[in-house]
Structure formats: C-alpha cells, structure tokens
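debug: dumping io for the single-chain case to check the tokenizer round-trip. Nothing else runs in this session.
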Amino acid sequence: DHAIKSTKSKLENLESNQGKSLYGNFLEFYPLHGSCFEHESGEYTYSLCPFENVTQRKTSSGGSVTKLGLFSKWNVVGVKNNNNNDDLLYPDTMRFVNGTKIWKKGKRNTTVFMRCGTENVLVGVDEPSIGEYTMTMETPAACPSWSITKKKYIL
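debug: decoded output
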C-alpha cells in the first residue's frame, strides 16, 4: 500500500513538473528512465541510457568509454487522436548532443529513432557521417495505445 502511494505521488510530481512532455503524452516512456540498453556492432559495444546519454566502447579490449552525446530533447510528430479529435505531439526521436570531441570535426551527436516493438531492445547503430550516429530502439512505449493517424508533417 505504501509502495502504491509512493508511485502515485512520483507520477503526480512528474506530471506537475512537465514530466508528461518529457516522458510522453501518457508517460509511456517513463519506464525507460534509469535503464540502459546495449548493442554490439562491429568492434564496438554501444550503450543507450534514455534521458541520460549514449556511449561506445571497444568490445574486445573493454577499452575507454567514448561519449556519443547527452540527452537534449525529443523530436516529435503531429498526430491526430481519433478518440476526441485533439492534436497531440507524439515523441518520435531522441536527440543526444555534445559528446566527446573529434579532432577537427566537432562533438559527437546521436539521433535515436523509437519504433514500436514487443520488448525494449536497441536493434541497430550506424554512423552515417563522422561524429553523427543513428540508433534504432524498439520498445512497447513507442506503440500507440490509442487509435491515431500520423499527419503528413513533422513539427
């Protein structure tokens, strides 16, 4: 009973402190807070800690950690909530900035695409240009729990 009251209190506090916008319209991304997810790709192991940071380290040597960015913001898409015709801003992509500097190139940054999936798993990592990383994470949090249709624009 005390644990339930404590959890309710935390959720009410989050909502009153703009937690809804940080964790989604229905706090659907809150379960990811405080968790980290790893993915091995090539010679590196990548770690995504939503709302915190992204890192990489050499898998073979367990080498030093390189910061690929600190959580900065959500990018959102406009969606139509068919239950009551209100437009919603739905979190779609996390942006991480100001990672470890690359000589003559600036600081590393990462974009994480959230996709609907049955479990929380980091499924892919790429570096399309030097210092710019992309990741794809599948999570039930990205599965809309209401009937929505995406608009044709990104905000």
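debug: round-trip ok. The longest helix spans residues 2-16.
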